[in-house]
Amino acid sequence: MSRARIVRTGIAASVLGVALILAGTSYLAWRLVLQHTAERLETLVRLASQRADETFAQAASALRELNRSPLPPCSVEGIEEMRLVAIDTLAVKAVGYVEEEVFVCSSWGLTDRGIQRWPAEFRTREGLGVSVNVPPFVAPAKPMLSLQDAAFNLLIDPEHFLETSLAPGVSLALGTPTGQWLGKPAAGFAQVLTRIHGEPQTALRDGYIYTRVAHGNWQTVAAVSREEMLHDLWRELLMLAPLGLLLAGLWCWAVERRVSASLSPLAVLTRAVANGEFSAFYQPILDLRDGRCIGAEALVRWRRQDGSVVMPDRFLPLAETSGLIEPITSQVIATVCRELGETLASGQLQHVSINLSARDIASAAYLPHLTRERQRVGIAAQAIWLEVTESSLLSIDAAHRTLAQSREAGHPIALDDFGTGYSSLQYLRRLPLDLLKIDRSFVQSLSAGTPCPVTDHTIAMARQLELLMVAEGIETDEQLQYLRQRGVQYGQGWLFGKAMPLDEFLAYIAGQTWLAAS
Ligand code: C2E
Ligand code: MG
Ligand code: MG
């Protein structure tokens, strides 16, 4: 994934995460409001229904007492008794007595206004007749509940059932199971009441959340309006805001850490290895005696997905310290065998050399892979030289073991950058080597006719070790002549050709460009 894409993904993940956290927090706040409201309503409705039941029980007992009374109903004593019932029974506002369905007296005294008793709309289980919302004698504008037993009649103020100290936005109603409500519920609430008949116990409807409880002959409904709930929601959101902000902050921090980690050089290199972005360029190696291109050095190149090519000095140090060098070596081996298999098998090219790192030498894991790959395309082991530098031979025993194994398998071993390390001659003599590659730094100081003691000494050392020589970094004809005169067999350098991709290299050996030019 490219850098820009990782950053874009990180930003998208942050925005999405924060949006989800905010949505989740809001949803949680809403659920809490619903839960608290439902609990509040539940408590309220239970209290109200309990109070209503108690009130009806008191009224029924008062009616029974009046019916049992030996006093003549509309006598002075009888009216006094009715008055006492009205005063003593909290919810009862008035008591009346009927003869042939017409009120003849009440707790207020005798009456001859010929007021008809209201027909009972339903009867309770105890046999009491009930009329809801009847106009009382004194203040007909305020509807009352009428309770009847035989000739006696009680008027009960519906407000008594309903909490007078309700919290703002809370409504309460008491009604019959058939949906006749006592008193005058407020307009919006009345609308809800018309539609909740037989609905579940707690629900949301028409902007109200309500709780309904059926008890005895009655049902009680408590409800809270949408405005009140929104008010509660804001309060809940304010309480949850620190948690939401903390979670959003943690999420952004985690995303930022992840993005930074994905953009670290190691993560980028790890992805490149996983994507198989490593291949090889080939630099021609010539036989200095006749000027023929007899081989090539495979030099690793990181071809990024955007097409750019990264040089080894930019990534090899990290690859070596992180251990990623081993899969990179594997990719180079696979590339070389795939790309040069035919050319080597046909003899057009005698060899290709592959560079190994300290970790490759220490583990020796490259060898079975190399054997498998070269055998698959029919390359002889002799055609693949292995280059090691002095710095990659840290553990002399492990190096000895690995190089001996490779040599036994048929691979010639070259000591790269020879002369730049500090190994003693004795030390080098113990290693199973075939070639020395004279380092570019020595070659570049050469000019024809001027002796260079250091290079001469290096060449002498190689001879003493009975090794073939490859001079690196030949850039001028003078350098070439100098090396030729001293019997250096092979050479590579910009004078002959830089490291190049496969198709250019194949064209190079087909045309033998350098020879033609010389
Ligand atoms: P090296 O193995 O000594 O390879 C020779 C380096 O010198 C190459 O650089 C090559 O392009 C450069 N060179 C060749 N001729 C000339 C010349 O005439 N003038 C100048 N100025 N430079 C010349 P490159 O490709 O950048 O590789 C650098 C080093 O990276 C290599 O040095 C080698 O140590 C390492 N390397 C390259 N490929 C691999 C690989 O596949 N595995 C491992 N472990 N190391 C590799
Ligand atoms: Mg090399
Ligand atoms: Mg070298």
Task: Please give a handful of descriptors for the protein shown.
TIM Barrel; 7-stranded antiparallel beta sheet; rod-shaped; binds ligand C2E; binds magnesium ion; 8-stranded mixed β-barrel; alpha/beta; 16 helices; 518 residues; 2 domains
Structural classification? alpha/beta
Amino- and carboxy-terminal Cα gap: 47 Å
Helix content: 40-55%
Low-confidence stretches: none
Count structural domains.
2
Beta-strand content estimate: 15-25%
- Principal-axes shape call: rod-shaped
What binds here, in terms of ligands, is: ligand C2E, magnesium ion
Mean pLDDT across every amino acid position: 89
Number of DSSP helical runs: 16
Strand order, largest beta sheet? 12-13-15-16-17-18-19-20
Number of strands: 20
Write a short abstract of this structure.
The protein has two domains: 264 residues, no CATH class; 232 residues, EAL domain (TIM Barrel, Alpha-Beta Barrel), CATH 3.20.20.
Report on the architecture of this protein.
With 518 residues, this protein is α/β, with parallel strands linked by helices. It has two domains: 1-264, no CATH class; 278-509, EAL domain (TIM Barrel), CATH 3.20.20.450. The chain contains 16 helices and 20 strands. It has an eight-stranded mixed beta barrel, surrounded by four helices. Strands 3-2-1-7-6-5-4 form a seven-stranded antiparallel β-sheet. A hairpin with a 4-residue loop joins strand 12 and strand 13 (292-303). Helix 1 packs antiparallel against helix 4 (226-263). The protein is rod-shaped. The model has no long low-confidence stretch (mean pLDDT 89). Ligand C2E binds next to strand 13, helix 6, helix 7 and strand 17.
